[in-house]
Write a structure and sequence with these properties.
With 64 residues, this protein is α+β, with helices and mostly antiparallel strands. Helix content is 47%, strand content 12%. A two-stranded antiparallel sheet has the order 1-2.
Length: 64
Amino acid sequence: MGPSPVDLEGLLRALAEHEVSFIVVGGVAAVLHGAPTTTFDLDIVPEQSEANLDRTRSANRVVT
């Protein structure tokens, strides 16, 4: 049995609703900049302040 699919839209919505400051990196960022590649994952890097990391943890609890 493979890994369960992740609700990427739900994850982005939760991050926005929790006012998490983050950047998108990796394959999705490359695609958004026009790279001819396909990717099915989303890599994000949250801003590293303690308050933002707390908001990130709260958002993750909503999605998982």
